[in-house]
Write a structure and sequence with these properties.
The protein is an alpha/beta fold and 390 residues long. Helices cover 32% and strands 19% of the residues. The chain has two domains: 210 residues, 3-Layer(aba) Sandwich (Rossmann fold), CATH 3.40.50; 104 residues, no CATH class. It is globular and about 65 Å long. The protein starts with 25 loop residues before the first helix and ends with a helix. 31% of the residues are buried.
């Protein structure tokens, strides 16, 4: 007979399966890992931003997450594990959301501290350095009492390139009604708490909200009670780490935190054959709208959009062996009853370049196009349909 003092089994919820050692459910994570101490202060400008745009009828707001998260090994952090991401896709996509020709979005840009940001990304420290754009007066003029002799100017040969970027930056950041609001994270704990609280802030927008989850989020972390307080000393010899899995917050985001929003996630693989199957599995597991698949080595040249094909969902079982079906649609068995049909859309930079060339654009502009323009264009179309249905 079991002892009456035996501990009760762990309480499970709708987002929890019986946990193995080293696994956290979403519920246990947020009940055991403390929020950033300045969380509410950081969110206050975002609340004001959302409230302002909520009052503008039909205005859409997209939360773009960008850059990678860190896992500190010490509370007074010297060493940490990092998820590699410069923030290129997120910062580039944010620009295209802001400047969409028919449906410009307001953007909440949630990014890794010091990662690339919209507009300034064109002039990083290593690519097209900003100081190379400027000219300064000759050294002999620095002692002049005339301020005009000390003016720093833009190199005339760079003005044509800089001017549209500068105008777009000022329009989005410094106009009477800015269309971008930035929010920084560093650690995976920062990211998870900010995402959870952001969902609550954005929730009043309903289906007008989109989440574009382009950040590279750590899969493993050290719970606070196992983080060393001070720098780990090398004199201790070999370092062995046992890390726990970061809970998958996409399901509660979709199903509970903000169920009316249009949600896009990303899947990065090094084996292209895995892209579509794993994207389909994610859609089945989490129930969101679109997964964008990236092959690590070709991510700037092509991506695949994978989504449920609702028009074919009811007939997917009976047509599973129909060789006449469209090549862009793949049928699979759903994990719970019935079959689910998925459609995949490949977007290739070469196609966008051909489109721009046919419009008569100069060669340098054709060569400068980015695949994120195609991605955002397609997602806006999907969001149009989402709003129509909701």
């Amino acid at each position: 007979m079991p002892s009456s003092s035996s501990a009760p089994p762990p309480k499970l919820n709708r987002f929890t399966t019986p946990l193995l050692p080293g696994q956290f459910s979403t519920e246990t994570y947020f009940s055991t890992q403390p929020p950033p101490p300045d969380l509410q202060a950081r969110l206050q400008p975002v609340k004001e931003f959302v409230e302002r745009w909520r009052e503008v009828e039909g205005k859409r707001v997209v939360v773009v997450t960008s850059g990678g998260t860190t896992v500190p090994l010490e509370a007074n952090t010297v060493r940490f594990l990092d998820n590699f991401s410069a923030g290129t896709r997120g910062s580039t996509s944010a620009e295209y959301f802001l400047s969409h020709p028919t449906t410009p979005y307001a953007v909440i840009f949630m990014h890794r501290q010091h990662s690339l940001r919209p507009y300034s990304r064109h002039y990083s420290h290593s690519l097209n350095p900003f100081l190379d754009l400027l000219t300064c007066p000759p050294p002999a003029d620095t002692d002049s009492k005339n301020d005009s002799d000390k003016q720093i100017t833009v190199n005339p040969s760079k003005t044509r390139q800089l001017l549209p970027v500068l105008r777009a930056y000022h329009a989005s950041h410094h106009s009477p009604e800015p269309t971008i609001c930035s929010l920084e994270f560093v650690t995976v704990n920062d990211y998870l708490w900010l995402l959870k609280e952001l969902a609550e802030v954005v929730k009043p927008l309903g289906s007008r909200a989109m989440f574009y989850l382009a950040a590279a989020v750590s899969d493993f972390f050290l719970p606070q009670d196992r983080v060393a307080e001070h720098k780990i000393q090398s004199t201790r010899g070999n370092l062995t780490l046992e890390m726990d899995q970061v809970p998958k917050v996409l399901r509660p985001l979709v199903q509970e935190w903000i169920p009316e929003a249009f949600i896009v996630s990303f899947k990065l693989e090094t084996d292209q054959a895995l892209l579509v199957p794993k994207a389909q599995k994610a859609l089945e597991r989490y129930g969101h709208q679109v997964v964008i698949g990236n092959d690590l080595h070709k991510r700037k040249m092509e991506v695949v959009l994978v989504e449920l094909d609702s028009a074919r969902r009811d007939s997917s079982i009976s047509t599973a062996n129909d060789t006449r079906k469209e090549p862009q649609v793949t049928n699979v068995q759903g994990s719970v009853g019935g079959g689910k049909a998925f459609k995949q859309s490949w977007l290739r930079l070469a196609e966008l370049q051909e489109e721009k060339k046919s419009q008569g654009l100069p060669r340098e502009e054709v060569e400068g196009v980015e695949i994120e323009e195609m991605i955002v264009r397609r997602l806006v179309e999907r969001h149009d349909q989402w709003l129509f249905n909701h």
